[in-house]
Amino acid sequence: MSSTGAATTPSPTPSATSGPLPTTLLVIGMAGSGKTTFMHRLAAHAAEKQKESRQYVVNLDPAVKTIPYGAHIDIRDTVDYKQVMSEYGLGPNGAIMTSLNLFATRFDQVVELIQKRAATLDHVIVDTPGQIEAFTWSASGAIITESLATTFPTVVVYVVDTPRTVNPNTFMSNMLYACSILYKVKLPFIVVFNKTDVVTHDFAVEWMTDFEAFQAALDASQEDSYMNTLSRSLSLVLEEFYNNLRHVGVSAATGAGIDEFYKVVEA
User: Fold this and answer.
1) According to the UniProt record, where is the region Disordered (predicted)?
2) What is the pTM of this model?
């Protein structure tokens, strides 16, 4: 599987299950990006293609009340988020991180369960907490990511709220965050522009491939000149990132673009 820039997938360990291995899709995204709805759409797509049995779903969000998809492994079955808050006197974010820490100590068992099913699976889909920093910048998040990546081919799927990125400065903030995650995890990386049923992602593709178009959008925004200058400079810095970035537009609500998403995954 190809990677972005210098990012490479660690080779599966020799002890891993022999034969073809399922691809792990590590789904991350800002709160409100439609990440969980995207997860539901992936599950529904597998059912439509009669491949539901070849998809393994893991939920790592301890604070979510309900999930609109069936999870084979759910962190909530192991860790009680509210009890963690009460027992350790923590706030919501602290409890999420502590719950992940507790679960990470047992994550080798999760990997073993997936390995037992590996021969019958195409994909392992992992949903992460909506508080993105609690996973991407925590020790437990790193442990979980490395455990998966050293055992299975792993792709990071970064879900973007397309309607919220029509502002060029917001777009730049999102891309900068995506870039920072890419170079932290050093894994194949796909940006999924979600909610294309509301706003098409054509503008985002244009901004990534045409510096002058992005500059014109900044000028038209009439925002603080310092922010515009910073975004303009960052756009040039991220040129290599853009050139190698795999991306796709989808609508988790309607299912549009999901077939294209899987083509990008397998590319």
Assistant:
1) 1-22
2) 0.89
